[in-house]
Design brief:
It is built from 2 helices and 4 strands. The chain is α+β, with helices and mostly antiparallel strands and 91 residues long. It has a single domain, classed as Alpha-Beta Plaits (2-Layer Sandwich). It has a 4-stranded antiparallel β-sheet, covered by helices on one side. Strand 2 and strand 3 form a beta hairpin. The longest helix has 13 residues. The N and C termini lie close together (9 Å).
Amino acid sequence: MKCLEIITLRSATSREKMTIRDLVKKMEAVDAKEPVSGLVLYRNAPVENDISIHIQREVTNGYPEKSPMGLQLARLFSEYGLVSHSIWIEE
């Protein structure tokens, strides 16, 4: 089943965006237990301080849970502002 994990950060300042981009790039290089088919960083068009990370993956065993990579990103991002972390499955 196709799964989309979304971690959204409403950051306190736009200055922190560079740090966040660096964190995401480092995460791309990490060898995950569940292979990631896509890792994309988005910015809210009108609200520059809103950043969303989308982790796309295929889940074969049971109901999808938050990935170790997603949990780590959400934990790291919580230092920079408000974080929302959710899992979506394709219908």
